[in-house]
Design brief:
- The chain has one domain (21-437).
- The protein is globular and about 65 Å long.
- Helix 2 packs parallel to helix 16 (313-334) and helix 6 packs parallel to helix 18.
- The protein is 69% helix and 3% strand.
- The chain has 448 residues and is an all-alpha fold.
- The chain contains 19 helices and two strands.
């Protein structure tokens, strides 16, 4: 028996325009699945007696550092983002649509789905650390849990920046071609040199702009058909991998492509040129596989699955860590781990790896209620139409959303002062969303 959600996805898949690049949608969906799987695997839980230990798998099993080269797919998101933003901006220009109207539509799709996550964690924070409870709760634990749960929001902050800059970065691509990419590469390398070589570490945060802008420019190149045929794409992949190996073997960069608490230097917080090299390698490899992949996506089941995932992609991305944290919290509260043998297996052993499918299945079930409840916010954002707010209002709204999310992802939600949680940082995205969403100007009355 086919589920209604599958039937609906199959109906949408059948209506796909013939000129749509299905590979873009597939990469987006596959990347999200890898991100979720990576986050669910990296948390190694071990229960022994009445004690629960939560560890970082990368620290427990050193060889998994190399697996992060597979699971670090943020470059793919920005590559796909460049492709999609190029198409969207070209379409807006053909329609003679203003930058403000184009920007409003893009932002409304992105910002609205994150608000329920923030509301959920505000309630959790009030319950566990707020002024109206009698629960003695470790604020460090709440800080780490909320930071991890809100980790996906950092991507929105940087991606919003890429959207804001799209008219300028696309104009640079049109005028300078690959030189616009190499300029970003040079800037990223210079920032790393100054941050790591000279010691100006705070300057390293600029690479949130330069590293991801460079990968975004590669998305423009892909959309324009400038990367080249598969053989040339493989040369890009080989060059990216060669640079990446050189940086981690002969340089001071760590092997792991994700951030861990024990690292002196992180490749991702802030991003380094290692992530840019990984992005170049991923770009070349994925573009070399584009033709056979697009042929496979002409088949019904694979394309329907892709459509199904993309229909709730923001929801699963924003809520998958919260589902993990909530599951761990419930197990901790009910003290039911003794009957759940998966948690008693020592991480890293063969039995532990064999038990991962069962643990992943548990987390999938835990994620389903969040999907059922909150996918509607994603659809509302996609269906939004109307006059765009003024440019100053959109930019101010973006600034408030990004500032609030940045604080939350870096510091978590608890504070040492009243009321126990950072209501200012939690509230800023709501204020920013209101500025992005609502237009104070009335639409003209066409009936008069």
């Amino acid at each position: 028996m086919k589920l209604p959600i599958w039937t609906q996805a199959a109906h949408q898949a059948a209506q796909t325009p013939p000129n749509r690049n299905r590979y873009i949608d597939f990469l987006r969906a596959a990347s999200i699945c890898l991100v979720i799987l990576g986050h669910w695997l990296v948390v190694a839980i071990h229960v022994e007696g009445n004690r629960m230990d939560i560890q970082d798998l990368i620290s427990v099993i050193p060889w998994t550092n190399w697996l992060t080269w597979l699971f670090q797919v943020m470059p793919i998101f920005f590559l796909v983002g460049g492709y999609v933003n190029a198409l969207g901006w070209q379409s807006a220009q053909r329609r003679q649509e203003s930058y403000t109207a184009w920007l409003a539509r893009r932002l409304q799709r992105l910002i609205l789905p994150v608000l329920p996550v923030l509301a959920f964690w505000t309630l959790i924070g009030f319950f566990l650390a707020g002024p109206f409870n009698d629960i003695s709760f470790n604020t460090i634990l709440l800080k780490n849990a909320s930071q991890f749960a809100l980790l996906p929001a950092w991507f929105l902050v940087v991606y919003i920046l890429m959207i804001l800059l799209t008219p300028l970065s696309y104009r640079a691509w049109q005028r300078y071609g690959f030189n616009s990419f190499w300029a970003s590469v040079a800037a990223a390398a210079l920032v790393d040199l100054l941050a790591l070589g000279v010691g100006w570490r705070h300057l390293g945060w600029l690479n949130y702009l330069f590293v991801w802008l460079a990968v975004h420019q590669l998305g423009f190149a892909w959309q324009a058909g400038r990367i080249g045929p598969p053989r040339r794409s493989l040369l890009w992949a080989a060059a990216g991998l060669a640079v990446l190996f050189a940086l981690v073997i002969f340089g001071s960069y760590p092997i792991t492509m994700v951030s861990t608490a024990s690292q002196r230097i992180s490749n991702s917080l802030p991003p380094r040129i290692t992530l840019l090299a990984l992005g170049v390698a991923q770009t070349g490899l994925l573009l070399a596989l584009e033709r056979p992949a697009r042929r496979l996506l002409e088949r019904g089941a694979l394309w329907t699955t892709t459509v199904l995932i993309n229909g709730m992609i923001m929801t699963v991305f924003l809520w998958h860590v919260t589902a993990l944290v909530t599951t761990i919290g419930l197990i901790f509260v009910i003290r039911g781990w003794d009957s759940f043998f998966v948690l008693s297996i020592v991480p890293g052993t063969a039995a532990w790896w064999l038990a991962r499918p069962l643990w992943i299945a548990v987390l999938v079930v835990a994620l389903i209620p969040f999907i059922a409840l909150f996918t509607r916010f994603e659809r509302i954002g996609q269906a939004r139409h109307g006059l765009a707010p003024p440019a100053w209002q959109l930019l101010l709204g973006c600034a408030l959303v990004c500032f609030g999310l940045s604080i939350l992802t870096l510091r978590g939600i608890p504070t040492e002062t009243w009321p126990g949680i950072n209501l200012l940082a939690l509230g800023l995205p709501f204020i920013g969303a209101a500025l992005v969403w609502f237009n104070p100007r009335r639409a003209p009355d066409l009936g008069n």
